Every structure is written in C-alpha cells, then in structure tokens.
Amino acid sequence: MKHGKGKWRKRGEDTNCNRYDGEYVDDKKSGMGTFIWESGNQYRGCYKNDERHGYGEMTWIDGSCYKGEWNKGI
Q1: Rg of the chain on CA atoms, in Å
Q2: What's this model's pTM, rounded to 2 decimal places?
C-alpha cells in the first residue's frame, strides 16, 4: 500500500506510458502530484482520493492549458 511520496508507471520503467509522481494516502493519489499521459498531456497540482481536486494546471500537447480549481476530477 502506497503512503507518502511515490511513483507509478503503467508499464514498469517504460517512460512512454501513463505515469504519476507525487503523494499518496492509503494507496490513493492525494496531495501534490504530476500525472503525464502517454500522449504527452500532463496535469500538475492537487489530488484528493485519486481525483484532481483543488488547484491544478492541465496542459495538452497542442499547447492549450487550464489553470485553476478542480472539484472531484472536473
């Protein structure tokens, strides 16, 4: 069970896959973290109970971005 700072990759050490680097509480993303999708899109910010929650920045590979508040992943 993950608790504290940690890393997760969908496929082991493969850097071209979904991956997360950040904080966990009871095996769920919780606190500050960065999630990068295989496509290159990325989210940096707060998590709560495995969902984006609080302030965060989402950046898409086309250069568009959203900076602001998230509530239960939305």
Answers
A1: 12
A2: 0.90
